[in-house]
Amino acid sequence: MPFVSIGGVTLHHRYIEAAGSSHAIIFINSLGTDFRIWDEVVAKLSGEIPMLVYDKRGHGLSDIGSGVRSIDDHVDDLLGLIDHFGFGKVVLYGLSVGGLIAQRLYTRHPKCVEALILSDTAHKIGTAESWNTRIATVERDGIEVIADGIMKVWFTPNFHAARAAELAGCRNMLTRQALPGYVGTCMAVRDADLTDAARRIAVPTLCIVGDQDGSTPPDLVRSLAGLIPGARFEVIRDAGHIPCIEQPDALVSLIRDFVASLPEGKPAHG
Prior knowledge:
Blueprint: E1 3-6, E2 9-16, E3 24-28, H1 39-45, E4 51-54, H2 71-85, E5 90-95, H3 97-108, E6 113-119, H4 128-141, H5 144-154, H6 157-162, H7 164-175, H8 179-191, H9 195-198, E7 205-210, H10 218-227, E8 232-236, H11 243-246, H12 248-260
Parallel strand pairs: 3-4, 3-5, 5-6, 6-7, 7-8
Antiparallel strand pairs: 1-2, 2-4
């Protein structure tokens, strides 16, 4: 299992090589998940596009280091990974909080970003009140107490009815995240407002949302696309907040099409 120390934080990751492509994609997870959410997408794109998946600080098998205080803590870790692998420009795919991390990284280091795929995310997610309520609840009672409600926004009713084993596995993934990493990242999302930064994004950007996303609904993601000059907006049918699990075929089709539209650049790795 690959691990690397970035600024004293051990990060769990997986790099999937591919010959003949100049666009490496780095996938950045949502809150309360680990990089296994990308398994179907990675399997379908394997050999076509170099890909890096990793567990955020305080999630999965990665350390929490000195803690999570802001989106910039996650950005620092990602910049360290980009440097470690010797990437040139990369395509950042950010899901939910991962989309905030991708936007913030672009703001800080635009020259290392070839393009952005912002999935089920926004320039600002939720309110201080909603996040403070969630934080207080899980600090008092644990993640378990909110898990069923989270599953309802992550996945459609059809997924709940037809894919019970996968639903149970995803629920396990959520409830087994380390509480400090989960709470710290909730605080980071609460405090992040990238509205002005989104207006200054000047690379090709694809905004994606599941049509039944109960966490970042289509209208919210559409508003993000409206802020970003020239951004493309796509809705995936029959999907909730995590299309990479629920509708990987539709998602992979969008990724392939978007990457194919990018100008050829320098080799993505090495």
